[in-house]
Structure formats: C-alpha cells, structure tokens
C-alpha cells in the first residue's frame, strides 16, 4: 500500500512540474523524466522488499508422512508424544508439506519467512542453515557430537537376498572406496572398512527409498559402475517407508531409510546396514536475519505454539 501511494505522489509531482514549465520540453525530455521516476520507484520497491520483518508469520515447511527425515526430525526435537506404545506426531496442521529434499529447499528459498529441514549432505547456498543450541551444522560437528541433530543412513536387504549383483554393490558401499564417496559428499563415513574385493557380476539391481539418501546413492552408483559396468542399477527416490515396504515385497533389491528401521520392518525379514551418519540441517531463507535457534524454539515453531518470528527471537 505504501508503495502505491509513493508512486501516485511521484506521478502528481511530475504532472505539476510539466504544467508549471509549459510545453517547452520535448518528447525526449519527457521520456527521460519518466525513466528517472520509474528507476526511483523500482529502487524504493526493492528496498522495501529487502527489509526482513520479524513480526511476520512463520511459514512452517515439513516433510510428508513416511519420510525418514521427518521421523528423525520430530524425534530429535521432541515434536512427538507417546501414547502407550504409539508415538503421535505433533507437527502443526498449518505446516506446508513437501515430498522431497529438493522441493523443501526450493520452497524455503522462495519464501523469506520460511523454515524447513533437510539432509545436511544436501545443503547448498540457496538456503541458510541455522546454528542449533550454539553449534553449526557441519559434518565435523556431527562427528564430534557438538551438533546433536543427526541420524543414521540405512540400507536394507532381505535376509536371504539371492541377487549377486546387489550383494556386490552393497559390498562396494561398505568398502574403503565406497566410504570415501560417502565422506567426499560431506557425510560421516563408517569406521573399520576394507578395500573392495568385487566378484564382477552382471545383472540388474533396483535401489529405492529415502530421497535424502538418493543424492549420495547416485554418487555411489556412479563410482561402482566405473569399476563394474556390467551391472545395471536403477534408483527410485521415494521415501523411507516405501523403501522398506518395497524391499519386503521384492520390488526393490536394496531399500534406503534415513532413520532406524522399525521392529515391524525387521520382523518381516529385513537386514539393516548403516552406511553413513548424516546431520539434519534446519534451514531458513537467505534473507532471514535469524542465524541461531535452540531446540526448544524449534519445537515451539513446529508444534504451532509460536506463530510469528518475533515470538522466538528478540
């Protein structure tokens, strides 16, 4: 509204100036004045839009049900309540739901007042990661224990898997060569691994599940195929729960879960292997003036207790 009034006043001043000086100005002078006014208006509008105002409502962005990242996030920040053996997700109904890491990042990058969370290994400069309880979201801080918002990356196979190519690929992931790929992509590698000794099989392998694991899995597939191009590996990015159910029913040879496997999944004959440790980065828009929050402040936002930014920051 202030912008419209400014433009209206500016237009009236221009008209008054033209009337006072008569019609002696030529067409080029009129165009020059209009261009100057337009430039000033654009600059003012840009300055207004760049002022981050903490009185604005928080745009809360979360992941879909079945996401391993969501499951780990609500557990780590206490955004769940126990009702007997059942755990109830207390994420506010006002949260916008995204179905992948990339959509989460795009949503937060496009909204100055948004907050979300992603795999630390997927973090790029399109968004800003917050300090949590005073610790920066880095792989080094996850490894040292200073940054406590972390979870395991698991792959799951059937106990009696008979796909030689799939087993060879799993062996590669858990080798020195595979874990170097993990480390090079900013995740915490597994200790005490040995050089890869492949069997050079051929065949097809279907890997699917967590979209948080998918980026590093792509790198692992690329590195493995450089060693053994005879194996075709198909990657399907879905979510952790789909990764486990599809491995149980045989649609996937290898499932991906960015959380611990549930007892019900293990009872269906799945075997879990931790391939890495990953942090969960809490992200905001790059224009936000917020740089740090506590675990309790995150909880108050995602349970809907805090509605505006000035309710959690000074």
Automatic annotation (TrEMBL):
Protein location: Cell membrane
Family (UniProt): Belongs to the PstS family.
UniProt organism field: Faecalicatena faecalis
Name used for this protein in its record: Substrate-binding domain-containing protein
Keyword Transmembrane recorded: no
Secretion signal, residue range per the UniProt entry: 1-19
Subunit structure: The complex is composed of two ATP-binding proteins (PstB), two transmembrane proteins (PstC and PstA) and a solute-binding protein (PstS).
Biased composition (Basic and acidic residues): 28-43
Xref: InterPro entries: PBP_domain, Phosphate_ABC_transporter
Domain of life, source organism: Bacteria
One Pfam family, short name: PBP_like_2
Membrane topology classification: Lipid-anchor
Source lineage: Bacteria, Bacillati, Bacillota, Clostridia, Lachnospirales
Keywords, in A-Z order: Lipoprotein, Palmitate, Phosphate transport, Signal, Transport
Record's function text: Part of the ABC transporter complex PstSACB involved in phosphate import.
């Amino acid at each position: 509204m202030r912008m419209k009034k400014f433009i209206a006043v500016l237009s009236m001043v221009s008209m008054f100036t033209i009337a006072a000086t008569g019609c002696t100005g030529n067409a080029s002078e009129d165009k020059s004045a209009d261009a100057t006014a337009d430039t000033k208006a654009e600059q003012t509008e840009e300055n207004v839009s760049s002022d981050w105002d903490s009185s604005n409502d928080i745009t809360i962005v979360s992941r879909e049900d079945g996401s391993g990242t969501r499951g780990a996030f609500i557990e780590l920040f206490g955004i769940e309540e126990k009702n007997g053996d059942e755990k109830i997700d207390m994420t506010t109904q006002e949260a916008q739901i995204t179905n992948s890491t990339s959509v989460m990042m795009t949503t937060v990058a496009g909204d100055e007042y948004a907050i979300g969370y992603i795999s630390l290994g997927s973090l790029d400069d399109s968004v800003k990661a917050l300090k949590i309880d005073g610790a920066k979201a880095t792989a080094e801080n996850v490894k040292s224990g200073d940054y406590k918002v972390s979870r395991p990356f698991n792959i799951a196979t059937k106990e009696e898997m008979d796909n030689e190519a799939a087993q060879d690929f799993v062996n590669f992931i858990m080798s020195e060569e595979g874990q170097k790929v993990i480390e090079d992509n900013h995740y915490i590698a597994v200790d005490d691994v040995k050089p890869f000794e492949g069997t050079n099989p051929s065949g097809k392998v279907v890997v699917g599940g967590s979209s948080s694991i998918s980026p590093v899995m792509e790198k692992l597939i690329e590195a493995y195929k450089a060693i053994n191009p005879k194996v075709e590996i198909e990657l399907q990015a879905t979510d952790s729960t789909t990764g486990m159910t599809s491995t149980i029913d045989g649609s996937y040879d290898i499932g991906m879960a960015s959380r611990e496997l549930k007892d019900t999944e293990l009872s269906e004959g799945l075997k879990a292997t931790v391939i890495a440790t990953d942090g969960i980065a809490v992200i905001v828009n790059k224009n936000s003036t917020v740089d740090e929050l506590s675990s309790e402040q995150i909880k108050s936002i995602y349970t809907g207790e805090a509605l505006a930014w000035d309710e959690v920051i000074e």
